[in-house]
Amino acid sequence: MTFLALDVGNTRLKWALYDRPSPQAQLLAHGAEFLENIDRLSEGAWADLPTPERMLGCVVAGDAIKRRVQEQMELWDFTPQWVVPSAQEAGVTNGYDHPSRLGSDRWVAMIGARQRMLAQGPVRPLVVVMVGTAVTVEAIDAEGRFLGGLILPGHGIMLRALESGTAGLHVPTGEVRPFPTNTSDALTSGGTYAIAGACERMVQHLREHTGQDPMCVMTGGAGWKMAPSMSLQFDLVDNLIFDGLLAMAQHRFG
Questions:
Q1: Catalytic positions (predicted)?
Q2: 193 among the known binding-site residues?
């Protein structure tokens, strides 16, 4: 049963075709397109793919983008399925006040991270960080309960906000340094350490709440930028959303 997984973010659409809907699936093909180019998928990257039998997607880019993606999938005969966060799925319990209002990418990433943790062992709490246009930092206890999470601006939003609100500051190409001595380095370092500090604070909260050291997982397009500046031990995972979609697909279709 071939399975198509879609991750439609604020900047790019990433896709992966697997031989079955399972965390143990083999990857058959994959790719990515910037959102401005998604109208070419059916005549380009998807034109010669084997017909997927099942599809599950995670979209945060809005309904207009989702409709454009669905138009590209009309070359195949199936009904697209999109993730809507629920109260519980695939071993994770949603502790949000209104579960369906949780971002679908956050929900899927948490399920993917827990799947990875269970496969590696031992079972312990989790902090899940996604570094993209926005940054999210989630806390999950050892029983799979999502306790809550932080949302803060990503690097680009922070820097643009400073540029627009502060005379004489311009978006920099600086370096991250312990003691910045020029404005570009100060801005780049400030944004990086703000994100790192949020991660460290959530680890502290979760450690105090559970009495256990949590496993930390980081993902997202800008995760690699954060890696050298993190004082915590963490796993950097490229495709955590796909890990989550495969776990959910096994739960739904398996």
A1: 105
A2: no
Please give the model's pTM, rounded to 2 decimal places. Answer: 0.93
List the alpha helices (DSSP H) in 3-121.
63-72, 104-120
Q: How far apart are CA 206 and CA 217, in angstroms?
A: 14
Is residue 221 situated within a structural domain? yes
The angle formed by the CA atoms of residues 117, 121 and 122, to the nearest 5 degrees, is: 110
Looking at residue 221, its pLDDT comes to 82
Asked if the structure places residue 59 within a domain, the reply is yes
The answer to whether the annotation marks 225 as part of a ligand binding site is no
Residue 254 in domain: no
pLDDT per residue over 47-57, tens digit each? Answer: 999 999 999 99
pLDDT digits (tens, 9 = 90+) for 172-211: 678 999 999 998 899 889 999 999 999 999 999 999 999 9
Q: CA-CA distance, 205 to 182, in Å (whole number)? A: 34
Amino acid at 112: G
Cβ-proximal residues to 164 (8 Å cutoff; 6+ apart), any chain: none
Identified catalytic residue from 19, 39, 97, 105: 105
CATH number of domain containing 176: 3.30.420.40
Could you give the number of structural domains in the chain? Answer: 2
With cut-offs at 50, 70 and 90, classify the pLDDT of residue 168: low
| Same domain? 96 vs 216 | yes
Query: Is residue 106 a known part of a binding site?
Result: yes
Residue 253, in any domain of the structure: no
Determine the average pLDDT of the residues in 83-100.
96
